[in-house]
From TrEMBL:
Its main location: nucleus. Keywords: Cell cycle, DNA replication, DNA-binding, Nucleus. This is Chromosome transmission fidelity protein 8. Pfam families: Ctf8 (PF09696).
Length: 122
């Protein structure tokens, strides 16, 4: 039998999932690791707007039917002596880092952001 220790802090942060339809690609197929994806804003009605490069996506906030827990695994080594042999026992604890109760769904096609430049007329 495996015993798991889970610590829950009620002051844990609440996270939100962002769901995009389709794929996100970069120029020259650069990896997306450690790259800012875009800017998330909310309009006057509280609807989320995501700006990705020169594209605007409108989304909606949805409650998840079952919350999702985000866990952090913490392992500890403990030395123990059993019958003249030294062994390292590894214990494993989990801490709830955050709870996810909502997600933002961007299911519509992105709209291009067009900027109209006026030429200088003297």
């Amino acid at each position: 039998m495996v015993e798991l220790s889970v610590r829950y802090n009620p002051d844990s942060k609440e996270w939100i999932i962002i769901e995009l339809q389709g794929s996100v690609e970069t120029y020259n197929s650069l990896p997306l690791k450690d790259v800012g994806l875009g800017d998330l804003h909310y309009n006057a009605n509280g609807e989320p707007l995501l700006i990705l490069g020169h594209h605007l996506l409108k989304g909606k906030i949805v409650n998840l039917s079952n919350p999702i827990g985000v866990f952090a695994k913490q392992t500890k080594k403990q030395n123990s002596t059993l019958s003249d042999s030294i062994t390292d026992d590894v214990t494993c604890d989990y801490e709830v880092v955050a709870l996810v109760r909502k997600k933002i769904i961007f299911a519509t096609r992105p709209k291009p952001i067009l900027v109209k430049y006026e030429s200088d007329k003297d």
